[in-house]
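Exercise 7.
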Amino acid sequence: MSPTKKIAPFRGYVQIYTGKGKGKTTAALGLALRAAGHGLKTYIGQFMKGQSCGELESIHRLAPFISIEQFGRKSFLPIADTPSSAEVRRARRGLRRCRTAMLSGDYAIVVLDEVLVAISFKLLSEADVLAVLDEKPDAVEIILTGFHAPASLVRRADLVTEMKARKHYYRKGVQARTGIER
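Solution. The predicted structure, written as tokens, is:
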């Protein structure tokens, strides 16, 4: 399939994958994989991630159909009452990059991975993300992932899927496994 620019042949919607269960990013990646199979291009901006993981290696092999950038730090960001100015700058830069990708005409799908967590950690505001959604071109699908989806974004979305944890081996002390969780 040719890696030429291909605009979505559909009306784009806003989707949210949220909840405390596993699978939000995985669902977004699955959608990007499906779109690549049809020659559509996806941009993924990862807000809370900055470390190497299996999805990065896979996605690089799917270029130019899927592009990914990380805006998080190399280690886990601890929950703090007041985030550092560096973390806020990284998140704002990420939101600007996602907006640019959304408006570029190059991508049928734009994923803001863990953006809901960035809002929860006060790295971004709900208003900032809503302002980006207000500029969404009709032919671009937007995916927002992360736990604690704010009510304002749930109202704005066209589709909301909540992942619910019913049972997880983490509770038995199993750490994240290479190729499965990371």
